[in-house]
Amino acid sequence: MHFETALPLQSGASIRDYHLAYETYGHLNADKSNAVLICHALNASHHVAGVYADQAKSEGWWNNMIGPGKPVDTDRFFVIGVNNLGSCFGSTGPMHLHPDTGQVYGADFPVMTVEDWVNAQARLLDALGIAQLAAVMGGSLGGMQALSWTLQHPERVRHAVVVASAPNLTAENIAFNEVARRAIVTDPDFHEGHFYQHGVIPKRGLRIARMIGHITYLSDDVMNEKFGRQLREAVTGNDTGYRYSTQDVEFQIESYLRYQGDKFSEYFDANTYLLITRALDYFDPARQHGGDLSAALARASCKFLLVSFTTDWRFSPARSREVVKALLDNRRDVSYAEIDAPHGHDAFLLDDARYMNVVRSYFARIHTEISAEIAAGAAA
Amino acid sequence: MHFETALPLQSGASIRDYHLAYETYGHLNADKSNAVLICHALNASHHVAGVYADQAKSEGWWNNMIGPGKPVDTDRFFVIGVNNLGSCFGSTGPMHLHPDTGQVYGADFPVMTVEDWVNAQARLLDALGIAQLAAVMGGSLGGMQALSWTLQHPERVRHAVVVASAPNLTAENIAFNEVARRAIVTDPDFHEGHFYQHGVIPKRGLRIARMIGHITYLSDDVMNEKFGRQLREAVTGNDTGYRYSTQDVEFQIESYLRYQGDKFSEYFDANTYLLITRALDYFDPARQHGGDLSAALARASCKFLLVSFTTDWRFSPARSREVVKALLDNRRDVSYAEIDAPHGHDAFLLDDARYMNVVRSYFARIHTEISAEIAAGAAA
User: Fold this and answer.
1) Confidence tier at B106 by pLDDT (50, 70, 90)
2) Which residue, among A178, A207, A322, would best test binding to B if mutated, counting the most B CBs under 10 Å from its CB?
3) How far is B170 from chain A (nearest CA, A)?
4) Is the pLDDT of residue A380 over 80?
5) What count of other Cβ atoms lies within 10 Å of the Cβ of residue A97?
6) Is the pLDDT of residue A337 over 80?
C-alpha cells in the first residue's frame, strides 16, 4: 500500500511517499472486529503464514502459529502481517529511492523507532477500515511493537500478546547490537552506508553480525546438545582428531555459524540491520516516566497475554515479569505463561506444545468475546 | 631464556630456537620447594606482579594477588611468571622470525595447545633447577594450564590452584571465539596472517574481537549497574535525549566497548589472538578418555583449590564443579570455593575480600606444609 502523506517520526524527521508491504489471511467479519495484527522482529516480514503457490520453502515465518485451525486460527480471525519501514523485504527501506533526491536512501534513511512503526501500522489499519484490533501480537522486537500499540493507541487494541520480549534492552543487549553494528560499519565495503552506488555489499560485517545474533538466540544448553564439542570432520593420525588449525573449521558449531552468516549476508540489507537494532536499543516506554514502568503502562487499557521461555537469556523471563508486574500495578487483566523450553530466545518461533496451547486458549477466549458481542449486537 | 632444542608440539609440529620471557619474585629457598608458577590467560603476560621502576601504570596483571604480604606472599614463595609461546608480550610469537626461513612467522607460527605451553613451562623450570612446584596457579585459560600441569607432570606439582576455569569449552564458548576469529581473519588487512609484510594491522577485526570478549567477561548485572541505559551525552530538544543515529555513540556501554576495542587493537597481535583462542577451544583432557573427566583426572596426584564466581557465565561455577566432582571421584584432596561476586568472569582479577582470603588461607597452608618438611629435613 502506498502512502503519500508524510509520516512524522520520533526523531523529528519524517518520511513520505512510502510503501508498506502487507499480507492478510482469513476474512474480516462484518463488524470488523476480528482483525489480528502480527508484528515482526529483526529478520522477518509481512509473510507470516502460508506458502506461495509457486515457491518451494516459502512458509511464512510464524506458519506453525498462524493458519486455519492453528493457535491463531485464520478461520476465525483476519490476520494482517506487515513489513516495517526500513526493512528489506518489501516495504520502503534504505535500498529504495529518496523522493527528494531520486537517489538511493542508504544511510540517509530516517532512523525508525518502535513507536514510528506502530504509527505506520495504524495508518495501514485506517486504510483497511479497521478501527480496533481484536489483538496485536508479536515476539521479541515484535512484542515491543505489540506493547507499544497498547500505549500509543490504547483504544484501538482489545488484546496484546507479547512473546519473549522486554520493556527495554539491557546494557548487555545493547552491547551485542553495538558489536554487530561496528562489524558492519567498519567493513570497508560499507562506504558509510552508501555501498549500493559502489556495487558492493558489506558481507563481512553482515556475517559477523549474524553469527553474534545466532549465539544470543540459542541457549547454552541447546548449543551443547546440538553441537557440543563435535568436530566437523575428525582427522586420523593423532590422538585427538584435531586438525590443529586456527583458521579452518574444526568444530561443528563453527561450521553452523559460518553457514548462517553466509546465508544471511546474501539477502539482508546492512542499513536495515543498523536501523532495526537501533529501534531495539531505543525502545524504552518507561524512559519518559523517569524509568517507572508502572507509570508508563498506565495508559494501556487492553487485556494482555505475556509469554516467556526459561532458557531465553536474550529476553529472560525476568524481563517479561517486569511488564506483568507493571500491568498488575495498574490492575490490568494479564495472563502470563513462563514456558520451560530448552531453545533459548528462538523458542518463540518453534513448536512447543505448551506454548502453542497457551496461545490457542487465549485466542479461543478472544473469539468467544467477539462472538458474544456480535450475538448481543444482533439481538439488540 | 633462550631454548635452542626443538620442543615437540601436540600437533606433530615443533618449534626451536625460541625465547620465553619470564619474571620471578621473592627468593627460591635452599630446598627449592617454594616455587609457585603463575599461568596467564588471553591478554596477559609474565609480568604478574609489581611495577617497573621507570614506568607509570606498570602494575602486574595479578598485582592485587601476588606480592609481599599478599595472598600469594612473595616473602614466602618464589613466584614465576612466564609468557606463553605465541603470545605478543615477549616470548617468541607470530611477529618474530622463523629460524628456517628468516621470515616473520605470521600465520605459519605453529598451533599451540595448553599442553604445549605446559611442556614449555616445564623446560623453563628445568633450566631454573626446580624439580617440583609448591603450586601452579592460574585463572581462566591460566587455570586450564594449572589443571593440565597436574596431568602432564603430576610428580612436579604439590598444589594446583584453578580459578574461574573449566575442563573444556562449551559450544557457546567456542562460538564466541569463532566469531572473534572470523572478524580478524576476514579483515582485509589480515592478509591471511601475513599482514606484517604489508605494513598494516587488522585493527577492525581486533576491535570486534575485543568487544565480544568484553561482553563475555562481564556479568549482565554488573553491566547494568555500571552502564545501564545511560546515554553518553543526552541531546536537548526532544523528549528522550536520544540523538537518533545508527552509527554515532548513543549509550555509555557503546562508548566503553569502542574504547576497549580501540585500545586493544593498538597493542595485541592478531595471530596471537587466533592462537590463544584456539588453545582454549582445543583444551579437553577428557577427550582421550571418551569424555570421562574422572578417568582423565585420575593421573593427577596433587592437592587442589578450585574457585569460581557465581555470576561468571563464561566459565560458570557448574564447570568448576565438574572438575571438583571428577577429582573427588578419584579421592583427591580438593578445596572448592564458590564466591558470590557480581563481576562475572572478570571477578578473578578483581579484589574481593572473600576470594582473596580463600587464596591467602590456602597458600598459608602450603607454606605450613613446606616449613614442616624443611624442619623435618633439618631434624633428620
Assistant:
1) very high
2) A178
3) 6
4) no
5) 12
6) yes
CA angle, B348 then B352 then B358, to 5°: 80
Query: Does residue B379 surpass a pLDDT of 90?
Result: no
* B140 annotated active-site: yes
Q: Any catalytic annotation for residue A316?
A: no
Question: What residue has cell string 476474512?
Answer: A27
A312 is catalytic: yes
The CA-atom distances, in angstroms, between A300 and each of A155, A321, B303 are: 9, 16, 61
Of B19, B73, B63, B92, nearest to B349 (Cα)?
Answer: B63
Residues ≥6 apart with Cβ < 8 Å to A25: A48, A49, A50, A66, A67, A74, A78, A79, A81
Task: Let me know: does B193 contact B271? Beta carbons within 8 Å.
Answer: yes
Helices and strands (H and E) in chain A: how many: 11, 13
Mean pLDDT in residue range A256-274: 98
Q: Kindly state whether B233 is in contact with chain A, defined as any CB-CB distance less than 8 angstroms.
A: no
User: Nearest to residue B216, comparing CAs of B97, B135, B311?
Assistant: B311
**Which residue's C-alpha cell is 546465508?**
A263
Q: How far apart are the first and last CA of chain B?
A: 37
Are B250 and A281 in contact (CB < 8 Å)? yes
Is 0.90 exceeded by the ipTM? Answer: yes
CA distance B241 to B246: 15
Closest by Cα among B80, B82, B100 to B91: B82
Structure confidence by residue, pLDDT tens digits, B274-302: 999 999 999 999 999 999 999 999 999 99
Phi, psi of A163 (to 5 degrees): -115, 135
* Helices vs. strands in chain B: H and E counts, helices first: 11, 13
When pLDDT is averaged across residues B134-145 and rounded to a whole number, the result is: 98
What per-residue confidence (pLDDT) applies to B239? 86
The DSSP secondary-structure symbol of B170 reads -
The band of A239, judged by pLDDT with boundaries at 50, 70 and 90, is confident
Distance CA B221, CA B219 (A): 5
- The whole model's pTM is what? 0.97
Is A167:A270 a contact under the CB 8 Å cutoff? no
Q: Are A337 and A307 in contact (CB under 8 A)?
A: yes
